[in-house]
Batch of 2 targets.
Target 1
Amino acid sequence: MSEKLSVIGKRLPRVGAVDLVTGGAKFTQDVFLPGMLRGMILCSPHPHANIVSIDTRRAEALAGVKAAITYKDVEGFPDAIVMPGAEPLKILEKTVYFVGDYVAAVVAETEEVAESALDLIEVEYELLPAVFDATESMKPGAPVQKSLWPGNVWNSKEGGKPSFVIDKTLLTGGDVEEGFAVADEIVEQEVHTQVMLHAPLETDTIVVFWDTNGVCTAWTKENPDSMVGWLWTILNKVYGTPMNKVRGICNHAGGRFGKHVDLRILAMAAVLAKKTRRPVKFQGVRGAEYHWARALTHSDVKMGGKKDGTITAVTMKTISNFGIAHRYPATETRNIGRAPNWTWKCPNCYYENYGVYTNISGTGPFRGFGSTQAHYAVSQACDRLIEKLGVDHIDFYVRNHAGAGDWWEQQKQTPSGLDDCIFKAAAAIGWKDKWHKPGEKTLPDGRKHGIGMAIAVHSGGGSNVPAGAVVKVNKDGSVQVLAAGEDTGQGLYTVEAAICAEELGVRFEDVRVIRADTESAPCGSFSSHSQNTCNMGGAVQLAARDAKKKLLALAARELEVKPEELEAKDGWIYVTSDPTKRIEINTVTTKYIGSNKVVDSEPIGCRVDGYGWYARWENVPWTPEEPEGSLVPKTWMCHMTEVAVDTETGEVELLNYVTAQDVGRVISLNTAENQLFGSTLMGIGFGLLEDFVHDPMNGRGLNATYLDYKIATHLDVPPTTAIFVEPINPNTVFGAKGIGEGSLVPSAPAIAHAVYNAIGVRFNSTPITPDKVLKALGKVR
Amino acid sequence: MNMTEKKEKGKEATIKLIVNGEPVGLVVGYQVEPWHTLVHTLRETLGLTGTKMGCNLGECGACTVIMDGKAILSCTTLTVECDGKEITTIEGLGDPIRGKLHPLQQAFIDHDGMQCGFCTPGAIMQAKALLDRNPNPTEQQVKEGLSGNLCRCGSYKKIVESVLAAASAMRGD
């Protein structure tokens, strides 16, 4: 099949690249409208308090201030809910729950005036008891966070009951106790992962404007359809606004990595824009951009295995610190449970999670959602078990990982490309020659050498979020794709253009993707779960197929053959059995599209636009007849790295890095490579650099600026080899999988194991910073 | 800068800049306030939104522009301190309307030296200043030269490839 493809898998210029390199790209930050007001938010200085009184009169009297909003203005408004099951949040509330919680907002002619006005708002608080540590918050008598869950544990009506359980033995008929009883060796340890910030370069920015027809337009970094849906639930209840009068635009988005729009700010902006009849812009402030981060976890993981290297049982208990709310608690707790359960062939697995509310800032989805914390914990168990059993790393993983026919939740898995990932990565790094016993190798410069590996699995795209697309074919043969999935940098539009060109048979450069706007495109799917290559790509493929059918019917008239005898490629339509018999696509479109001519007493004018609607229903139960029919593909990864550890400074340098991922099929090579490198590097940041700290005294987030929260720079990038493994997936668009998140997951454990191999010390917590290394070596207290 | 003196004479203080080759005059107290940063003036007063504001703290490099041949952070530079300076922003490179791109811009497209692209204008301006003073940098020199330009998408590998390719093209290799 691949030799027939003209566009898919090639090095294609990124859609939007010219805008980005010339400064012409309009990010939400770059939206400036006539008369636009600027908003600023007053945040709580206390971790838990009731607002006894609040007075904005002095602030509103300041020259240039146009309006203020407090909880009193939004009483009776619907909650700001983005996901069923998530903790409902009020837009503004009489109680504040963490340092940084929203108290009031002001809009003014300039940001400076708005900021000054915040100081003039008079608030009297009644302090309430607060708790910051998840374990403390679970104890009887801890201050109650939310009335919905009296024990502070999500989805747990009674104290002590977990939020979520996966008991794999219910499906496999296995027995965890028996699994441990037959094990030759058992390993057990606690693992801790830190809070990680998305820290996209563009801060969260929202611009809202109501026009004279009552249409509310919002520019955000969010998927415009999701955003419209959320905002509409509020606007409809409050102002009676119908959905066709809420418009969402996501033009260019300066990175997101799982961070979604803050619906509370969006709602405040909409209310204030309505009140002032002016456009309103809220631009996020670096340093206060730490909401909805990756949840901190504590896991107790236990794994047993036989002497031949077979895992016999896995259990994990995880406590996640959700902070004041979690945007997608069900997904987080489920995804964490996938690492100890569905990753392995072993039938004897059990997991439970406690998602605990505390008085720190809220948590939510993040690239490698849940899997990142979970695989770090499970991988620690694997590496210890491998050592205790004295087996080979590669044999261990190949023997134990799940694959086609093994359970994945209620379904059976599709084929996995992990074995190839492992073998190719091992060959690329020279695993067999380079592995040594821990602490055995010292480099000529005195540093200790180590090598480590880890595997992981993550959602590989496609979900039960339906997606629509329109492919519009013009008279000159050029094409527009109207599809409201948002490109946040992952390269979605390049992927959509490639899929459209390949399917329709036009040249890549003849396709233009219109940036996401609910006014021009059918309902789209949001960029999350690594789903949009499959979801939006699937919709674009079906739309292109629909247009092509119409196009071939017209070409058939010209070539005097049946449409089924035709194929389109690279801008030409040709007879399959005799490719010399052909016609250029734009000859067909020029003649027929919008023509007012009559041929043989028949008007020939027409349009050849196509419409596509794609939906994959993740939760359709598995049946023996349809073992893979409804299953969302999973992407598998293997990372290997060599490190040098300086035992004097504690510094860990990555000498060499191999990142291999099962991607189904590469659609656009440039953007796929960038996703693989970028995701891997973010995982390296999780493993070595990034650590968001909350003050233990009041739960205040301490280090949200780039100076204090270290993300990787040019100087932190190791020499990296990227390997794509392409087991073409039968169920998705051109066999692709979503790849953007997976390679974040195995980076940190691969590094931890390499550090262990270098200095013989295990790190049960991320990130592995020089101070921790020196402490572990006994060089500092 | 002798604003006080000018005011004493009863004249308005005007900040004169040359931005992308065009002279610009900004009246203090009207178009520019003493607390306005250069990134604010460029984006909000002059409408040159190609220069991005990532942190407003001098930490991320997204606001990098070239002033008198040197790459500077426009978020930590006050506009009133720029009187008489010549400033080049991303809009001043190449001529995109007529389809003419600077070799750096072309190389970033050819080598996909970006993902979300928010850091791209700053990275390109930093790279331009680097290549202007060192037309033949090593890979390590590029990495060090651009180490203050953060890219959260992690496109660093392709950014370095882009800069090295542009350097080669500009030397006429």
Target 2
Amino acid sequence: MVPLSYYLLLSGFLFGCGVVGFLIKRNIITIFMSIELMLNGVNLSFVAFAAHWHALAGQVFVFFVMVVAAAEAAVGLAIIIAVYRTRETLNVDQMNLLKL
Amino acid sequence: MHLILFLAFGAVCVGGAVNLLAQRHPINSALSLIAVMAALAGEYLLLGAEFVAAVQVIVYAGAIMVLFVFVIMLLNAGEEEETKASRVALLLGVPGMLTGGVLMAWVVLRHSGTEAVAIGALPGHPTDIAQLLFHDFLLPFEVTSVLILIAIMGAVVLASKPESQAGRPD
Amino acid sequence: MNPMLNLWLIPVLPLAGAAINGFLGRKSSRPAVTTVALFFSGAAFAMALWVAMQFSSLSLPYHEYVAHWIRSGSFSVDFAFYLDQLSLVMLLVVTGVGFLIHIYAVGYMWDDPSYYRFFSYLNLFMFFMLTLVLANNYLMMFIGWEGVGLASYLLIGFWFTKDSAASAGKKAFIVNRIGDFGFLIALFLLIKHFGSLNFEQVFQQISPISPETAGAGLLTAIGILLMVGACGKSAQIPLYIWLPDAMEGPTPVSALIHAATMVTAGVYMVARSHVIFERAPTALTVVAIIGTLTAFFAATIGIAQTDIKKVLAYSTVSQLGYMFMACGVGAFSAGIFHLMTHAFFKGLLFLAAGSVIHAVGGEQDMRKMGGLRSYVPWTFLTMGIATLAIAGVPPLAGFWSKDEILWKAYQVSKVYWGIGVITAFITSFYMFRLLYMTFFGDYHGAQVDAHGHGSHGGDAHGHGEPHESPAVMLAPLLILAALSLVGGLVGWGNHFEHFLAPVLGAGEAVEGASRGTELLLMGVSVAVALLGWWLAYVLYYARPELPQKIADALGGFYQTVVHKYYVDEIYAALFVKPLIDGSTRILWQEVDRKIIDAAVNDAGEGARHVSDEARHMQSGNLRSYAGWIAAGSAVVIAFMIWMGVR
């Protein structure tokens, strides 16, 4: 019998690591992976609550989150490839053409 | 028993997450992320969500992460260089986040009640999930399939080599 | 019941003339403009005569309601006309003298390039003046009051390209406005305490009130405030300063507006409000004092003026003072009587002066005239008659009215009478001085050369020698001269007073006023008039070198009088300069520039600064975007937690 809060703490920790990685890392692919980490943390939270409240809808929602994550990863990586073709770099600090 | 298994899988998750941050080469980060996902699948099984765990391994670890690894190898990503700013962030940020994290954890543990989750608390049989999916959540299901279609088309268009367009440097 | 007289036509006809000439006159020929102008003003006069003929068969007062105007709770004001003996007198004077002056102006203004505009304005003035006279409530009267001020401004500044004319017009309007402020406050008091501005309703409510003897009170306040308005419009102390400057306008304007009609509006208003004044002795005293002082003061200034029109202007101010003196001693009908005769002889004086100016090609300085008797005999004749009238020589009109005033003043206070007599002496003196300087002696003027321009821009044609005016200008002179001769006879046997009695109340019979005293005083008036004549004869005909010697002997005092006691300069220093300085230094530089402009500019600057700072958010750097997203989402999550915990 594991207290719910343990699951939530773990979930929160994973999410936090994802955020930190998103902010710190300079390689754009690593930033993407941090995003995936965030999503995973959230998935854990969903499943934990689904178990706690006996609501299967929580697990169904995890299913949807994964679908969205997949789609987003596909498109995002395609964008990265396209950007890499012009910028020749994966350093996110050099992708600054949007500045005023 | 439940607790030990939880802690074991949890340790792998934590370790993988921290390693993702610590590593400089993206391929190492990718591999640690795979480890995190695998451990998470274990966590899901502990909670009884067998379908979700399977999907996690197949889709997340097996497809998405493979895609990541493909791209890393395709683009020949190298190590991140270490700059002065990142050293400072490391020296200041890590202790800071650690303190913050510990603080929050302590608060949460203090104030949580005795809700506990049993092992295999909510068995997520595929049949039950399918029932929900195709009855109550039919519309989101269909919409997400459209979403995937769009993503496929987008990815193909974005990543394709451009036709020789006038004035576009290659 | 009274038949419908269609009184509304009387003001509206000149308005139509003004509109037609105003809009269509520029492209029309002079005869066309003349026809329109004379037709509509003549039609108004004809209607006034017709109304006068109906007068005996009417039950007075006659009301004519045209349209309702203001309905605000229990307060209502209508466009409605009112006819009684007093307004009939005013009506005939205004339309009659007005029509004559229109005829005169045809000749006087013939060569002016803005001929049509002049008649448009003149007709417009008639409209407003008639509205004023025929109104049945104070508010409509105020419309006419303001409107004649506007017409006066337009006509004084008729030659607006000339700086002095434009300034004079402005001065007239502004000073009038100061008086109007007092008038307005009186109206507000009337509305507040009597709930109406309709003459009948107000006077009905006021009649039962006994005279305020305590010296202060509502009616006194209203009376004094109305008098303030009259001071502005009728050029009394302290607001008379605009009238001499108004001589910048063409002479027909001076004759009509600043002698016969507009300036008398104040007297009419005071007479109309006699119900109020009779119950406020303090206000009456104020009126009398102002009138007497003004009469004397203006007369002294008139002695030393050399411009023929300025002499007449101060004379007008002085005679208006007489009218207010009459009202102030309770002799309202005497004041109106003098108003009527003054319209005749002062109108005639101005028109004749215009004829003189026309004759000498625009020159207005009397020192450059002289000996014109042989050149312009008809003008001399008519002007002589007018001079006799104003000096108060019997049996001309001025004698009857002025004597009436002095008689009534004697019954109230010998001080008023004394000052009035002295002023009569001075009046006679300066009028005959004008006559001798202009028409007798040798002609000092320059030969009026062909195409010579007079110094005052009015007349621009010269024919070599001073010449008589054309018939179109002489005819009104003759008619007015006839009126000056016989117009006073309506005062014989107190006929005029009895005629106006239903409106103004019968004059109080004062004890101890015997026929003998009256005749004695009459004799004194005549003697004084003749004395003035004799003195003028001596100084300006027999021994013309004397005036200069006297002037030198009096030195500084004489200079002060010549400069009109420096009143304009005093006002400029006391009021005008501080206002302009205050406006420049405080309102413009401080309030406008530093507060208002600064607020607007700073708002713009502020917006720019804020966006300058905010711009840094859009750095193009992905990681800073990521940072902002993280920060923002942290805030949102914190807020949601806080809401959940609450």
